[in-house]
Write a structure and sequence with these properties.
10 strands; Glutaredoxin; two-stranded antiparallel sheet; about 200 residues; 5 helices; about 20% strand; 8-stranded mixed beta sheet; about 30% helix; alpha+beta
């Protein structure tokens, strides 16, 4: 019995570490100032972070239509926007894939998906694939929580939305919610970087 309990503890530890190990890729690190962008939304309008005059920060999520991980998180992404946009931290969705490789992520498909799911957040296309490399995003979904300051939009959290992509009901740690809640209270973020779990961003070799 003790052996089984020890095994269970080890399994949980491995699962948690899969999310909490920090990635060593390029792009922004915690404390960096994130660049603004000017990307096309599904309604045809161009959107920049600077458009949000009253925002306290942003939940920037690189996501798409075709990745099973991204699809599994769609409802949770929408829930994040409904919970935090009114508190000053709107979700900004960005589709980073090359649509020649993933035609299911083209603008028409993005528009159809957003309508079907009732997205209330902007869903932008990184058409030239210039923004996601600056951020250092490698997966869909990949989250960057930014805090608006006098110096610019400071990167405060990077990584996964939570610790269970398979089922929202089994989530134990809500990384993004914990980060934004801490910022709203003026507290430090306990876990400010995790490993994003998802599909690789598709780009021409």
């Amino acid at each position: 019995m003790k052996t089984l309990k020890l095994f269970a503890v080890l399994v949980v530890a491995v699962m948690v570490s899969a999310f909490t190990i920090k990635a060593d890729g390029g792009g922004y690190k915690i404390g960096d100032i994130a660049t603004d962008f000017n990307l096309e939304n599904i309604d045809g309008k161009m959107v920049s972070l600077s458009d949000y005059k009253d925002a306290k920060g942003f939940i920037v999520i690189f996501t798409c239509n075709t990745c099973p991980y991204a699809v599994a998180y769609e409802d949770r992404i929408e829930a994040l926007n409904k919970k935090y946009a009114k508190k000053g931290y709107p979700v900004i969705g960005i589709m980073p894939n090359d649509t020649d490789i993933k035609p299911g992520d083209n603008m028409e498909s993005m528009q159809a998906r957003a309508k079907a799911k009732g997205f209330t957040f902007p869903y932008l296309m990184d058409k030239g694939q210039e923004i996601y490399p600056k951020y250092g995003a490698t997966k869909t979904p990949h989250v960057y929580v930014l805090e608006k300051t006098k110096k610019g939009n400071v990167v405060k959290y990077i990584g996964a939305i939570d610790d269970n992509y398979k089922d929202a009901k089994d989530v134990k740690i809500k990384y993004v919610e914990n980060a934004v809640d801490a910022l709203l209270k003026g507290n430090s973020i306990e876990v400010d970087q995790t490993r994003a779990i998802g599909c690789s961003i598709k780009t021409k070799s």
